[in-house]
Amino acid sequence: MQEFLPAIEANAPAEEFQSIPVPESYRAAVVRAEDVGVFEGMPSSDKDPRKTIHIQDVATPELAPDEAYIAVMASAINFNTVWTSIFEPLSTFEFLKRLGRESKWGARHDLPYHVVGSDASGVVIRVGSAVRNWKPGDRVVIHCNYVDDQDHSAHNDSMLAANQRIWGFESNFGGMADLALVKANQIMPKPEHLSWEEAACNALCNSTSYRMLVSKNGADMKQGDNVFIWGATGGIGGYAVQYVLNGGGTPIGVVSSPEKGKLLEALGCEAIIDRKTANYRFWNDEGHQDESEWRRLGKDIRALVGEDPDIVFEHPGRQTMGASVFVAKRGGTIVTCAATSGYMIEYDNRHLWMKLKSIKSSHFANYQEAWEANRLIAKGAIQPTLSAVYPLEGSGEAAYQVHKNFHEGKIGVLCLAGKEGQGIADPEFRDKVGEDRITVFRRLGA
Ligand code: NAP
User: Fold this and answer.
1) Does 252 lie in the same domain as 192?
2) Which among 25, 61, 73, 308 has most CB atoms closer than 10 A?
3) From first to last of its 446 residues, what are the pLDDT tens digits of the chain?
4) Which of 285, 281, 328 shows the shortest CA–CA distance to 309?
């Protein structure tokens, strides 16, 4: 794949890319089927992605008519790569088997290795015969909504498609590699004021937060809303805070250290709760939810903003959901996309129905939502939350950092980009947006 670098650096025309042969194999971060079961019996927190994410050469898959090959310059760690690498809640090889049964093209994905990664920035190097809107040489970012647009169910909101998948998690040939295989309807233009790694880290988390808060498919936030955000300097939380501020609302951000609190302040969030200092114990020692602890959190929120949250941005799941349902205001919305701490949830239903609250589920974003979220990055209205960068060989360590919650925002992974800071094609616009704003997580992160 190195052969493509001079053409990428020179921003060469399509014909030049077309003349460079696509190699028969490429370097990738993979999880291996032979490792499923290595962590059996261990608590989640002890399962170590460094043991199961391997760097190896894999065969280049055949290109389907509606697909493109991407020369990947950079990728990013998402929590789904942590799940894949620790085989929780189930092995992603089950997803690949299911996709394998779907069609001739699906069968390519069912392999004893899984190329992980659901984010990428890079350059299109080949397109299939049915691809109209993209050509070799296009500088792009990739979103992870993987849908078969021949299915009728994909044509209202494609997240409702019967065979909707997350690329690089429920499909193979993901972004943590030198080459990625994507559907044409995953491609979006690269925001050109950003480096490859700054551009690569956004699509999954930024689009998820956009749908959860801004889209009519999510909580449909309005001006003046108080939005309570768990993990406010985490992968999705760092974008959520920015959407609330841009939308004329008040974020109330939760973090777990003074350092993360400083980062949140720098983002412009004034109402901050440090959950470690507050030491909420929503589950008591007998394994029951403790309503007095929910009330304590509610009081802490009122002390900061004088009101209850219109929206609760929920994703930790089991540890927090009872409190999230309780603290939302009468008629408020709890929007949830995950359950990091456990998916069997307990909350008091009386607080939900008597106060006419709603729990709204959300999952990634459709192409239009991802496009709009990417457009806001390109306009400099939303900033990347990149806090650290690893080489592809360090993918296991990078996933370990996220698993252990040692990180802030997003961790980038350099693939073909040999070093940080490359790929900025619009330095004037970068200056206009402001280096300090673009790099806030990189400068203030751990
Ligand atoms: P992340 O970067 O690890 O950030 C999550 C943050 O949540 C952590 O930094 C932590 O912040 C906080 N947190 C973790 N455990 C907590 C607990 N028990 N109680 C309270 N706060 C806790 O992860 P992410 O990228 O933001 O993703 C968060 C979750 O959403 C993951 O489960 C991920 O798989 C899921 N997700 C789902 C979608 C989707 O489309 N459905 C998309 C993206 C992510 P503090 O320690 O500072 O409080």
Assistant:
1) no
2) 73
3) 999 999 999 999 999 999 999 999 999 999 999 999 999 999 999 999 999 999 999 999 999 999 999 999 999 999 999 999 999 999 999 999 999 999 999 999 999 999 999 999 999 999 999 999 999 999 999 999 999 888 899 999 999 999 999 999 999 999 999 999 999 999 999 999 999 999 999 999 999 999 999 999 999 999 999 999 999 999 999 999 999 999 999 999 999 999 999 999 999 999 999 999 999 999 999 999 999 999 999 999 999 999 999 999 999 999 999 999 999 999 999 999 999 999 999 999 999 999 999 999 999 999 999 999 999 999 999 999 999 999 999 999 999 999 999 999 999 999 999 899 999 999 999 999 999 999 999 998 76
4) 328
- Which pair of tokens denotes residue 148? 């078969």
* CA of 235 relative to ligand 1 center, distance in Å: 7
**Do both 149 and 254 map to the same domain?**
no
Domain of residue 266: give its range: 219-361
Q: Are residues 260 and 200 part of one domain?
A: no
This prediction's pTM: 0.97
List CB contacts of 171: < 8 A, sequence separation 6 or more.
95, 96, 99, 109, 146, 165
- Binding-site residues, ligand 1, Cβ < 6 A: 78-80, 204-205, 208, 230-231, 233-237, 254-256, 260, 275, 315-316, 319-320, 337-338, 340-341, 363-364, 402, 405
Split into its structural domains, the chain has a count of 2
270 and 343 share one domain: yes
Give the Å distance between the CA of 148 and the centre of ligand 1.
28
Half-sphere exposure of residue 330, counting CA atoms within 13 Å on the CB side?
2
What is the best residue among 45, 78, 79 to mutate for testing ligand 1's pocket, by most ligand atoms within 8 Å of CB? 79
CA of 128 to the centre of ligand 1 (A): 36
Give strand pairing partners of 67.
183
Q: Tell me the three-class secondary structure of 30-83, residue by residue.
A: EEEHHHCCCCCCCCHHHCCHHHHEEEEEEECCCCCCCEEEEEEEEEECCHHHHH
Same domain, 27 and 160: yes
On whether both 165 and 233 belong to a single domain, the answer is no
| Domain final position from 318, 340, 361 | 361
In a domain, 93, yes or no: yes
Residues 104 and 133 in one domain: yes
- The answer to whether 231 and 257 have CB atoms below 8 angstroms apart is no
73: domain CATH number is: 3.90.180.10
